[in-house]
Amino acid sequence: MSDPDRPLDNPDQAASTADPAAVAEDATNADLKLVETIYGAIQQPGRFEELLRRWDRARGSKTGPPDGSDSRPDSGPDSGPNSGPDIVDTHFTMALDLATERTALGDRAFDTVLEAQRIPSCVIDMDRRLIAGHEDAMLLLSGTPPIMPGQTLPDGPFTGAISRILRNSKDSQAQAEALTVGDNGYLLSGTALDGHVLISVQRTGWKDSMGEMLTSLYSLSPAELKIARKLVDGLNPKEIAESGFRSIETVRSHIKALLQKTGTQRQLDLVRLILTLGEGIPTGPDPALNENADFTRHVHRQSDGRRLHYLRYGQSGGIPVFYITTSSAPEETAAFRAAMERRGLDVIAPSRPGFGGSDPVRTKSWVDDCIRDYTALSRALDLDRPVLAGNREGGVLAAAMAETLPAARAVILCNTGAPMSSFDDFPDNARRSFEAALKAPRALTFGYRVAKQLFRSGPWGEKRICQFFVEGCKLDETAILRGDVYEALRRNMYFCFEDCAQIVRDIALWVTDWSARLPAKTPAHFVHAARHPFLAQATIDALVAQRENVTSTSIDNAAQLLLYTHPHALADEISRVCGRNRAPD
């Protein structure tokens, strides 16, 4: 007779020998607990990790639930209509709608309005209660942590302007107010929405890059450019006339010409356009981050009118490197940029469509559209045999881009790894994400949405999500104790969280077999961290053995945070592949 208190050697045996009714009841309870946690996490993002553990429990994953008990078997046909994967997936979908819209399920019009806004915005009612909004807007208007739907905007530096917008919105369709807070100016605008008001907030202030872009894109005259600058600085037509122009009629004539050339309808729209061109869309609570850094910002207009923002840094006139990122901001770190310059590399780094001020793609074929946009930019800049480089999932896009740019010198894939065949040996966090990206993308999108809320809740939330990202890798856990590495990771988390659904699409691209996208003739070189926690060097070695044009280099003492702990590594390898000797550090 067996000892009932002795644990079984095989956990699956417990499920097979247990009473079927008890197993079904346990499975139903796991589903119910998961559903409760799903909705609870919307209001309490600190339950993010509890959500993941209960998800594993309900899905029968190998990771145990909080109490350490065995995981449940997959739901079978007798699970009943109100339990099992189908109903749980439905709850994930409903919760994602709630979390994304930050409002009731019936208020989908507000979600549509917010999706159309390219600057931080939120919807409030006439009593200043928040209905829905972007986190960036709520951070600016309410402080940290941002308020939740149903809560009232607290008093603060924007209170007066918001009150004026609410009063004016009762009688007109649109009003705007500008004010100065400390040394930084902000443009607040309000648009009436059937008993509610859309509030948009954007940093003001002229920068030299704005003049360059306006002149290049719209052929403005010196006088028009001068007036555009004064409008951005917050002056009205009368004040502009008094500052040196002959008459207010002359000022109005120039403003009319500005509206016609830029295709805008109102002064407010004109100022918004200029601010967007000059700064891009803020990716975090500090839109001025890296404002004086060693790179220049540019805007390329696609043939369909969409904008693709890109950065340029490194050595002007050097070997062109078209650098594609997905999970990090295109400027990376100052040390990374300095390494590129020392190696004589001229880096062109686009902000991917839908991020950092670039307009989103217009079809569902996002990979093909990205490649089309990047190829058009490369050709517009007349790049001579560029190196196509990408980090993580960006390496897949760099490889695909080689098909449209067959004259490229090489494709460099940094910490991209070889195509994956199994996730069984991956750390739990990576395994869970990769499996869900293929099997339950809506659920994973919701998970990232909750993580985003936790991350945006303040310094503690930022730290916890950064720790979660590197959990299980001692090398990276130690690395983020360095202030510069932690700050780089934190900043790039803001960039990633601009679009949680796109994170899931990126992962789905990464985990499918993308080997067909590798170029047949163009040299392809993997730069890989030797101690990466889930992408094994052995899979890359196997690919190298099969393809004559594929090579690799393993970077010692590096893991997921390779670009931050070894900022020179990618520049070194690009230089070597291009036949240049390394410059001394």
Percent helix range: 40-55%
Looking across the biggest beta sheet, what order are the strands in?
6-7-9-8-10-11-12-13
What characterizes the major β-sheet?
A: 8 strands, mixed
Q: Given the structure, what is the number of helices? A: 24
Number of strands: 13
* Amino- and carboxy-terminal Cα gap: 71 Å
The structure class reads alpha/beta
Index terms:
585 residues; alpha/beta; 14% strand; disordered N terminus; disordered C terminus
Provide an overview of this structure.
The strands form two sheets. The protein has an eight-stranded mixed β-sheet with strand order 6-7-9-8-10-11-12-13, sandwiched between helices. A five-stranded antiparallel β-sheet has the order 2-1-5-4-3, with helices on both faces. The longest helix is centred in the first third of the chain and has 24 residues, at 20-43. 46% of the residues lie in helices and 14% in strands. It is built from 24 helices and 13 strands. It is globular and about 75 Å long. The chain has helices at 11-17, 20-43, 48-59, 85-101, 108-115, 135-142, 159-169, 208-218, 222-232, 237-242, 248-262, 267-279, 334-342, 366-380, 394-404, 428-439, 441-455, 459-470, 474-479, 483-496, 500-511, 537-546, 562-565, 569-577, and strands spanning 121-125, 130-133, 174-181, 184-193, 196-203, 296-301, 307-314, 319-324, 345-350, 387-391, 410-414, 524-529, 550-555.
